[in-house]
UniProtKB/TrEMBL annotation:
Family indicated by similarity: Belongs to the CcmB/CycW/HelB family.
Protein name as catalogued: Heme exporter protein B
InterPro entries per record: Cyt_c_biogenesis_CcmB, Cyt_c_CcmB_bac
Record membrane topology: Multi-pass membrane protein
TM regions (residue ranges): 28-46, 52-71, 96-118, 130-159, 166-187, 199-222
Alphabetical keyword list: Cell inner membrane, Cell membrane, Cytochrome c-type biogenesis, Membrane, Transmembrane, Transmembrane helix, Transport
Purpose of the protein: Required for the export of heme to the periplasm for the biogenesis of c-type cytochromes.
Subcellular location: Cell inner membrane
NCBIfam families linked to this entry: ccmB
UniProt main location, coarse: membrane
Length: 228
């Protein structure tokens, strides 16, 4: 049997991770259910007035998306570490950077991308103006990709710990703040009628930087955790 090329190997990893997530619906459902529950709580907490909900909608939706992504970060490498396949990945001849990138792309597809796709439903629940829904989806698609790449660093550093969820929060939550600021600003700009393009461009620049550096840091974290 011929050895797969690097591209084929990464595509197989991506397909494998997505297939595993589909077989465990709770991994896909948890962020969506969390998002829905918290969004539903806002009208109960601050009142059903549509004007108030529209004011808080950009920040509220982005904060919930950030927490939903954080909720699943700990599981990116956990199962492969437990069954020993993560050690084999580190020994594979393919570049670890690309293998890690495949893992993180799969995590984004089953969390952040899904949140971006269903976000119009939650936006309507908080009375977000229809003109801002497209910007919300675009900002979430870009921003959650950054969150997955940054979250992978924390997941790699804590994969050997039995209870690493809280430590991940302490490690990576400060790095999430710029994404939250610019993501919220993009939606707020769309609500007010101002151009949202500059904020989306900043999110795109952050994504480019995260793609370049995030998998490198994650790969280094995995080597530290496996060798420890």
């Amino acid at each position: 049997m011929s050895t797969p090329t690097t591209l084929q190997f990464c595509l197989m990893l991506l397909r494998r991770q997505v297939s595993l997530a589909i077989r465990r619906p709770i991994e896909i459902g948890n962020p969506l259910v969390f998002f829905a529950i918290v969004v539903a709580m806002f009208p109960l907490g601050i009142g059903p007035a549509s004007e108030q909900l529209a004011i808080i909608a950009p920040g509220a939706l982005w904060i919930i998306a950030l927490l939903s992504s954080l909720l699943t970060s700990d599981s990116v490498f956990r199962s492969d570490f437990d069954d020993g396949s993560l050690e084999q990945l580190l020994l594979a001849p393919q570049p670890l950077y690309l293998s890690v990138l495949a893992y993180l792309c799969a995590h984004w597809m089953v969390t952040g991308l899904l949140l971006a796709l269903v976000s119009p439903v939650f936006a309507l629940m908080l009375n977000l103006p229809a003109a801002a829904v497209g910007t919300l989806m675009a900002s979430l698609a870009l921003g959650t990709a950054v969150l997955s790449l940054v979250g992978g660093i924390g997941a790699a550093l804590t994969v050997g710990l039995k209870r690493g969820g809280m430590l991940i929060s302490l490690l990576i939550l400060p790095l999430y703040i710029p994404v939250l600021i610019f993501g919220t600003a993009a939606v707020q700009a769309a609500v007010s009628g101002a151009p949202a393009g500059p904020f989306l461009a900043l999110l795109g620049a952050m994504l480019s930087l995260a793609v370049a550096l995030g998998p490198l840091a994650t790969a280094a974290g995995l080597r530290i955790s496996i060798d420890a």
